[in-house]
Amino acid sequence: MRIYSRRVKAIGGYLNLQLPALEEYYPSLVKLNTGRNALEYLLIVNAYSCIYIPYFTCEVIMEPIRKLGIQYHFYTLDRNLDPIVDFEIEATDCFLYTNYFGVKQLTVNTLAKMGMDLIVDNSQAFFSKPLHGINTFYSCRKFFGVPDGAYLQTNELIATKLERDISYERMSHLLISIDQSIEKGYDSFKANNDILSNKPIRRMSFLTEYLLKSIDYESCREARNRNFKILHDALSDKNQLAIDNSSINGPLCYPLLTNKENIKKKLISRRVFVPIYWPNVFKWTTDKMFENYLAQNLVPLPIDHRHNEEDMERIINYLKQML
Ligand SMILES: Cc1ncc(COP(=O)(O)O)c(C=O)c1O
């Protein structure tokens, strides 16, 4: 008996998880399983011999670099999170820059005009559209409740057909946080995060694609802009980071830099959850370096679409007592 594949529409059977069928935000970009694998894709198709990466980035960026055995050099940032480029970049090298917190689009614009082989890591800047002809990747799970997923703008495509990923087993934290609480799902979040390490490059799973098609992106973007502005208006005079908010476009968080002690701990105890960007930076830098100071003292305040003005006022009130 012939078994029909998924390409033939199923009729009947049990019902599946039902979500709105809307549009993806980047329907024409290459869809992959993770951001780090999008970087690996770029390193392979361009056959770069060396990559420049910032000291201030996430450890998983190293996964594709180690896997492919590509030479790498770290570079430093100035106090505005702009790269200090005081070295020669050869024609076979590439330069990775992270659009930090989604607030560095003006720097991305400047770097794109410098003529180097630029790779833009927009993992923290989902809503910042890729510049024409510039290699750019996105990681979806930093902005939305999806298990994985990445978008990639690339001028070159991998010649072989990639297998499709399967992500349903990495969904538990997304479900537990709804059914129980964000705290109860945290161990699953960490476990599902760890499982993403050292996976082959695959196409985005059907499940992730389905989830990404159910999102009202414009309302998410607007909520982030509104919340960012509320925090910026209240906190910019206490913030050691000078933020140019003229190009704000659905950023990741409000990055507050302050050397007041234990702010993160105090916020977490009040159920305002703030991550560390990034623990590996302590290993990579000395305590005299700005990147080390950033990793120590940056408080990434949540501004995502789940939150309203009242939530922002709560954060501001807590911080008033601490700053
Ligand atoms: C700045 C940055 N770039 C890239 C990545 C990789 O994204 P993914 O987890 O989708 O591989 C991460 C985090 O994991 C990140 O924080």
Describe this structure in words.
The protein has helices spanning 35-46, 62-68, 105-112, 172-179, 186-195, 206-212, 217-235, 263-269, 280-284, 290-297, 309-322, and strands at residues 30-32, 50-54, 71-75, 93-98, 118-121, 135-139, 150-153, 253-257, 298-302. It is an alpha/beta fold and 323 residues long. The chain folds into two domains: 30-212, Type I PLP-dependent aspartate aminotransferase-like (Major domain) (Aspartate Aminotransferase, domain 2); 217-322, Aspartate Aminotransferase, domain 1 (Alpha-Beta Complex). It has a seven-stranded mixed beta sheet with strand order 1-7-6-5-4-2-3, sandwiched between helices. Strand 2, helix 2 and strand 3 form a beta-alpha-beta unit. Helix 1 (35-46) packs parallel to helix 2 (62-68) and helix 7 (217-235) packs parallel to helix 11 (309-322). It is globular. The protein starts with 29 loop residues before the first strand and ends with a helix. The model has no long low-confidence stretch (mean pLDDT 97). Bound molecules: pyridoxal-5'-phosphate. Pyridoxal-5'-phosphate is lined by residues 34-36, 57-58, 60-61, 98, 121, 123-124, 139, 150, 196.
**Average residue-wise pLDDT:** 97
Distinct ligands, ions and cofactors found in the model = pyridoxal-5'-phosphate
CATH hierarchy: architecture of the largest domain: 3-Layer(aba) Sandwich
Number of domains: 2
What is the helical fraction, as a range of percent?
25-40%
What oligomeric state do the depicted chains represent?
single chain
Low-confidence stretches: none
Strand order of the largest sheet: 1-7-6-5-4-2-3
Counting H and I runs of at least 4 residues, what is the number of helices?
11
Radius of gyration: 20 Å
What is the name of the CATH superfamily of the largest domain? Type I PLP-dependent aspartate aminotransferase-like (Major domain)
Report the count of strand segments: 9
Termini separation comes to: 71 Å
* Shape descriptor: globular
Structural class: alpha/beta
Task: Please report which band the strand proportion falls in: under 5%, 5-15%, 15-25%, 25-35%, 35-45% or over 45%.
Answer: 5-15%
Given this structure, which CATH class of the largest domain is correct? Alpha Beta
